[in-house]
UniProtKB/TrEMBL annotation:
Belongs to the UPF0047 family. This is YjbQ family protein. InterPro entries: UPF0047_YjbQ-like, YjbQ-like_sf. It holds the Pfam family YjbQ.
């Protein structure tokens, strides 16, 4: 039994929800790891991101987003509207704002623009969809069918970022 760890670097859009098709990258990492039979956990380490298993949709809107994802965004916007001001949601509270201000002073490159933390909606959507998917590997390939794709979703629309998607592959 072997265990292999790897990571994917993904850049978010920063102006709208970002869906990144990571299916081929995962297949390549499984091949590189040499796992023939086992599983692969695909996980976000970010609290405003999710990993989802969804059907690939050939049709896209003018922004290049798949129509199923556009439909999902429309429904979610009705349930969990985007946070645009500090009064839209209770989050972030005073203590969290203070923590983030201190973090921005101590961490080079960390934004000190408080509007970037107006993302309660992104946290709730990520909680709703979860941070990971587990894929079964058989004969060196993930069992995801012919139209099943894996997407890394960044629900945060406040700034462009480099995100990390972790992989753990285990098997023979």
């Amino acid at each position: 039994m072997q265990v292999k760890h790897d990571a994917l670097k993904i850049e978010s859009n920063g102006t709208r929800v970002t869906y990144t098709d990571i299916t081929e990258m995962i297949k390549e990492k499984i091949q590189e790891a040499g796992i023939q039979d086992g599983f692969c956990v695909v996980s976000s380490q970010h609290t405003t991101c999710s990993v989802i298993f969804e059907e690939f949709v050939h049709d896209k809107d003018w922004n290049g987003d798949e129509l199923l994802q556009v439909d999902l965004n429309h429904i979610l916007e009705k349930i969990i509207p985007r946070q645009l001001t500090e009064s839209d949601y209770l989050y972030p509270g005073e203590k969290h704002v203070q923590f983030l201000e201190e973090l921005s002073q101590q961490t080079p490159g960390y934004p000190n623009d408080l509007t970037t933390i107006l993302n309660a909606d992104a946290h709730m959507k990520a909680s709703l969809f979860g941070s990971n998917e587990t894929l079964i590997i058989k004969d060196g390939k993930p069992l995801i069918g012919s139209v099943g794709y894996i997407y890394f979703v960044d629900w945060d629309q406040n700034r462009k970022r480099q995100r990390t998607c972790n992989l753990m592959m285990m098997g023979n």
